[in-house]
Design goal:
Chain lengths: 265, 265, 265, 265, 265, 265
């Protein structure tokens, strides 16, 4: 690739992945709504509000691949989610359509299916069961991406990220964790495939206690190598086991199922 | 029921159903963003913009059932769909939550699955394949309703309406048509059931060439009686058969699959 | 058939069916643990405790068909269920094996799956979810019958009876009711078929609000004609609608899910 | 249609349907390898060996619909089946491809799945289990038709005919019978549909004891009206019930499963 | 755990596992109907007849986990199976319910599904096909456990043990073998999980020729490490290969399918 | 085995496997329609036209296992495919039936399902979608083998070979490649199993990007060890990536989907 766009580059996950993308494209265009800090030689930085249609158009122009981590990534009030995750995503897809339809990796979320229990094993066709407004916004995103695929041929990987961080931080994350290395190798597979289509990809490492079945995307050849199990001792020491009647031990979405609807001010 | 709310009561479908709801509740509160015309003895009329949070709250207060036909019901520009079908639906569910969670019949649409071919027979768990921004907004609505059900217990019937009108107007509608009488009997079943849950219901009559399987909601006891087949001759006379390569003959969503994205001004 | 055995002939369902069996066999051998009352010309009566191995053997000898309604048919203490429904059923199958393996219609029950919700539509392969010791005993019976089928070729119809009575007596029975006429026509189909195998048959009439799918036994040609719906008005008048949080409105097994384990004295 | 071709028109089924096709097209071209008898005004007769490539090409030229009943329709020696059902079918599809790809109704057979038991209920995706060389030749035909559909767009209805005759002649045919009227209405549906695709259609009437599920082709709107059940008494009188261990009572293919491989001379 | 109960501790499997349980709880209460031999420091021994209600109650009191290997574990006469595996299991669950509902690992068996062929690959929802009275008693046990789970919240792991022994002893066991180490690691996973539910777990090692799919319990994180394949040479030398028509080569239940019903004396 | 027959031994795959079969049987009978070159000590060579019934009978006589690679293995004109793959296969099965029914490994092909897209993951029951006359002939072969299995008990492994060669030669083959070593170990498993049945086996190595699920034959214990992924670099260097709209990047059958029907001369 010549130019790869990373949105949400100043966020937690964005910051972590930004440094790892160097080899994937000649130029990595990093973007966020806040300042992006120092810019490396292979980077170009663009501050952009996803809710601004023409700014997003300029952002996407010239890119031949997009990793879309931007937007709200936790439960929040609806107006903020609407601007960033609904209007923002529409803007992104319109910009992609106007600029040659670069392939998109869309950071969807396990919160699209957060109300499944942790003793259920899901495949990619499990009906949606979002656990909050954030999860609902990701359901919207998946539907929007699917429509652009069927109508215009726009390809997207719908990555339902579990918990992508340096290491798992709770007992639940022993199931949902995805290491940065595994995310990176997934990104490589997504942009390498001659044809991608518009598949759901479950975003977790090769964890002993994983809940999700990725065999339907075996054509991508992604084989995560990390396993959260090696952190079990550390977590057992750091915190008590969740009680069986705690949502964090019941639902795949964990504590999100308990979040209230956040009121507008 | 004491008071049943009908939104979108000035629209095409709303107008047709309004007169038929008399026996279902003591008072039918009819609502739309435009004038509602003469008001019958058993009715009360409320003009309301669904995008207005507190207006919607007042609209819902005191109702113990909601038939939500309001919002945009064809392809349109995103800003309008966002206001009416995304923000508007959020407002409606927040209002319901604040007002005793009256049961909701939500007019979803076959355009949530419009990209399936007409030779496919669908059940309620078929993955979504919306055919435009309107269809995407209905996917959002179904996800939002599902979340309110799992999180708060709010019950909704997700009615994927085919073509609800006086009679079918095209060859495609021989499959998708739902008569007003059948819609009315469905409404009765939905509000009669001791427990509803949050099921998808395919909204079409007992047409010979129907595409959709409602056996999963047989617990509701809805048995549509009409059959579009009796209009075949009339339609054959009125218009030529669609050509096999015309989307109206290929896709369940019919002409919607050809709609462009409508530009903002 | 020359001689058809009816067990449980003095029970509620047995008494109702006894008179209807006349045309099915030259002799109907009616049996129960209590007195059987006056005996018709085409009948012979045998008082028998199902827990008595050799008495059951004598009961079955000479029969070329068995309708097994005998045993405990409601929740009860385990010792009684064990004697009648576990030991008793074992005795019956051993007697059948020793006496030419007459075809058996076994009265299983919807209480084998009573913990499914009423908004679920079940096929015959739905995993078992019994709602009490009685339901568990019927799960045992189905497993025993299946084993005798695979090991010895003994054929059995596993009839999961809903509510077989003169008419439905509650809102739940609008879904589960089976009329005596429909049960009779099922019995005829079961004994008429050249080969029966060992199928599950859902025992309910053609009710508008039925929960169960019998298409897998369409080879038997059973088409129930009655429909509980015509009793809806009568029931609506006779009793209040169940509240949505009442198990009678939630679970297919209805009030059985609330039964305690009955203590031994 | 202007010209409809009927192959196998001198065979048992062909003779019966020939007279019924009058209204379907201006001209019905009837064909067989043997003499076709008197020719009606709306007919033209062509004697043709399906194994003769150029004769088949001439046969198909000018037709805009084909009902292909020709070929061997019972178990026979391989050389005959190969000529008529393998080479002959290839010739037919090549001729269709060369002549504008008229829609084809291909008489496949229940003998493609004859080794399923009669207590199994099949949908159109059940893996093939042919019961003889004849059944294997129909599996070949279905595969060939499918390939021409995917590669060239040639549409075919793969009609797995049960027992199409004036009335059922055995207990097995109470399940497999298709009346001439129902076959005719199916033909009308197949040629009427704007798009057909390449579906399997189970060819039996609305028999009480049918084994096959046609819901996947509900888009065609075919609703068979006849029911073999009304002939049960007649059959019960005319012949003894099959014994349970007779293949005619065990397998869907009935006596075909017992046919030997017919030796070449 | 403070106190872990092991029933059947004097049996073949019980003896093997008894020594391995040391680290799992402060005290291991070992129990059987026969003498339990020398008792280790971390152990307490209780002789108990499972058929004795109050003895079982005392046995369970004070335990916070139960590994239930007790009862009859091969084909036997019904009276013995009824006492130990039906009444005994009921007693155990009543005792658990009266004593704080400690989590239970229940030794179910592959003989619940013994009549499946060895060329079938099963998931946990495959309908039951027991191969004898012993297998039927385990079907009863699974149904009873399920009912206690749904009704009272009692958690159980339904472990369908294949062949748990030091090493495989026949060609069939190359598929069914579970090593003691793998069973131990499964036990650890079962008692470690914050929530268990009531899942079926197939009890075999990571054998090359396994028949059973455990992906539905991937949330438990059990990864068996042993593989019976390394014993193939040894078995090939020790005994002839089974003949293809020997049930040991046909059915998953192996020789059990040939066991007769054992007569009462 | 005493004598193992290898047909097609002079072809590309036959030549490669011929040398590897030494240890599998005392005598390897190698056969082809062309000269077989020098014959090793453990071999016997037979030149044979598969279209010649009695020659094939002599070929099979005395063999207790058959690896059938013979016939046409690419797209060709129908007359040639009919002789070698239809008539030839019939001859082979008749010869096997007349000679003790030695187990057969039949080289079927991925071209039976070549019209599935590369982003679909298939199990063994996916409906057939052949991509040419060659693929259709393999569908015929699978149906014929199945019929001989059900009717006569003849066992066959239906091996849908991907690309069996020394190393993958295109990007598509990174998914479809099967190494010679893996094919050899599959052959060993097929002939070792006490019972084989008539299963489909997907013939590819343990490639990162494989499309096919072999879990249903886990009872055979075949675990391919090679992985085409290690050749990715080599292929990336040797040729450009396929364009996304090139059939080689879209369909599992790759370039075969573009093959025309080859005309007879």
């Amino acid at each position: 690739m010549k130019r790869l766009l990373l949105t949400g580059a100043a966020g937690g996950l964005g910051s972590a992945m930004r440094g790892r993308l160097k080899g994937l494209a000649e130029i990595v265009r990093v973007s966020d709504i806040v300042d992006l800090g120092p810019v490396a030689d292979h980077e170009e930085a663009v501050v952009c509000d996803l809710g601004d249609h023409s700014a997003v158009d300029r952002l996407v122009a010239g890119c031949d691949g997009i990793i879309h981590l931007g937007g709200i990534s936790v439960e929040d009030k609806f107006s903020k989610i609407m601007n960033a995750n609904l209007l923002g995503l529409y803007n992104l897809y319109e910009a992609a359509r106007a600029n040659g339809m670069p392939r998109i990796l869309f950071a969807s979320s396990n919160h699209t299916i957060g109300f499944y229990r942790q003793d259920e094993y899901l495949d990619h066709e499990a009906p949606l069961r979002p656990d909050g407004l954030y999860g609902v916004s990701k359901c919207f995103g998946e539907a929007l991406a699917r429509m652009y695929f069927e109508k215009f041929g726009q390809e997207t990987a719908l990555v339902r990220i579990g918990s992508c961080m340096e290491k798992p931080k709770s007992h639940r994350m022993l199931s949902t964790w995805m290491s940065y290395d595994d995310f990176l190798s997934m990104i490589e597979c997504v942009f390498r495939a001659p044809r991608l289509g518009c598949p759901v990809i479950w975003g977790c490492s090769n964890n002993d206690t994983r809940w999700w079945d990725n065999s339907h995307v075996s054509y991508l050849g992604w084989h995560p190598r990390d396993n959260a199990e090696r952190f079990r001792g550390e977590i057992d020491e750091a915190m008590p086991k969740p009680r069986p009647d705690d949502p964090i031990a019941i639902y795949q979405g964990g504590p999100f199922v308990n979040d209230p609807i956040f009121p507008e001010d």
